[in-house]
Amino acid sequence: MKIRFVGNACLRDGYIICKPVDNADDILVNRLFSKKTEREEKLGNMYLDIELDLQEKARTYSQLKTAWKLVECIYVSQNMEKPTESEKYDMYLDLLEVYADKVENTINGEKRPVRLSDGNTASVARFIEGLMYHLSLYANLDFNAQSDVVRLLKEWEAFRSGLEKDPLDYSDIGCTVLLTEKEWREKKKFSDASGKGGYLELAHIVSKGSDESARDKAWNWLCLTREEHALQHEKGWEEFLRIYPHLKGRVYRARRLTGGKE
Predict the structure, then answer these.
(1) 229: which of 35, 55, 85, 155 is 20 to 30 A away, CA to CA?
(2) 158: pLDDT confidence band, cut at 50, 70 and 90?
(3) Any idea which architecture 56-167 has in CATH?
């Protein structure tokens, strides 16, 4: 039996301790070691052939935790109870079909969704954005679940804001081609500030009067409700970021990319 998974690992007392970060991979790893135990009872000690790979730009543990928690929230919104691990995994598979990036199946040429364990920062970011969109549009959440989603939104926006390049500003995986305004508007279904849906507006971080060249750059845009947009203009960025501190990184990055302009 051969498996490949993404995991957190550390060196402890001469042993490599490894933990999968994807719940689906956890099942495979447990199955592998169960098989190993069964065979060792009959054949004696057996050794595993392990290949470790440290990849650049892999999705982070924080991203994966966020994705799985959102999957759980969506299940709760539909079924009014917490899922078992099996039920959560089934919901995850359904959501992958709708919101995950798709790649070509080399056997039949059809498209298949990219799993969390196979994705990178950009593909997982787009999947999480899809889950956020689903919650804003379809979910019927109780107070506790809604609080969880708001917290996750803030953590998620803070994570994106801390990246050198936000993958959701780009149309390609390599983050080289910025989204056009039309593409951006098609993708943005909820406010970056509050997570609310409904009528949304494009807000410029660095004003058009301050730097005209930044007007059509996706990294200089925020998606806000009309009320939030008006609040930002009325109170200014300092007060706006006091209310929505998870957006500080995105605002500061836009200012840096325009040479400190506001």
Answers:
(1) 155
(2) confident
(3) Orthogonal Bundle (1.10)
